[in-house]
Amino acid sequence: MLFDLYFIFTYGSQLEESTFAGRSADFAWFIMFTSIASTIAANFLGIYTLFHALLISIIYLWAQENSGRIVSFMFGVQFKAIYFPWVLVVYTFVLSGALIPWGMIIGIVSAHLFYFLNTTYPASGGPRLIPTPPFLYWLLPAREVAGAGFTGNGATANVYRASAPTSGGATGHQWGRGNRLS
């Protein structure tokens, strides 16, 4: 349980500070979408606890956004971040004694569905099929984050930038190019 809490805090905060920097509504939509998709799938499989599905969906999106990063797991075993969710599934499978961790697999599938519909498909020229609902932008308005850039591939950043509504109406503010202070 302590590892789970550590993972959700670490990778959730890294997603919030990098991929979703200043866009709390988009992060909330990711959590809501994966939770709804996981709940629907778990209903058919008879699974009642979905904490691992939420945990692994956060780790999966983090791994997709940081796919080239090298991570270390259990006694220094190193591999690329893209494999991290699958390593956790295998690790759980080995520790559980041949019980398939369906909750984790549901989390990976729901996060992959979100990533595909929100990033991969729009980057290949298709529309963004699951945009963040406008009421979330109203509840959690975007904020400027000093020095925070978008991580991951450029397609992800462009999709998220284009989807966020601007505060100045349909066209947004035209502030100019700005000046450095030092």
Give your account of this protein's structure.
Its main location: endoplasmic reticulum. It is a single chain. By secondary structure, the chain is mostly helical. The protein has one domain (2-142, 149-158). 58% of the residues lie in helices and 4% in strands. The protein has 7 helices and 2 strands, in the order H-H-H-E-E-H-H-H-H. The protein has a two-stranded antiparallel sheet. Helix 2 packs across helix 5 and helix 5 crosses helix 7. Mean pLDDT is 81; it is low at 149-172.
Keywords:
182 residues, single chain, 2 strands, Derlin, mainly alpha, membrane
List the helices and strands and how they pair.
Layout: H1 2-19, H2 24-45, H3 51-65, E1 70-73, E2 77-80, H4 84-96, H5 102-123, H6 134-139, H7 154-163
Antiparallel strand pairs: 1-2
Helix pairs in contact: 1-3, 2-3, 2-5, 3-5, 5-7
- The rough form would be described as globular
**Low-confidence runs of at least 5 consecutive residues:** 149-172
On the 0 to 100 scale, the average pLDDT is 81
Radius of gyration: 18 Å
Total beta-strand segments: 2
Widest sheet: strand ordering: 1-2
What structural category arises from helix and sheet content?
mainly alpha
- Oligomeric assembly: single chain
Give the biggest beta sheet.
2 strands, antiparallel
The H-and-E topology, N to C, reads as HHHEEHHHH
Query: In percent, how much strand structure appears in the residues?
Result: under 5%
What's the helical proportion of residues? 55-70%
Cα separation of the termini: 47 Å
Q: Report the total helices.
A: 7
Q: Tell me the number of structural domains.
A: 1
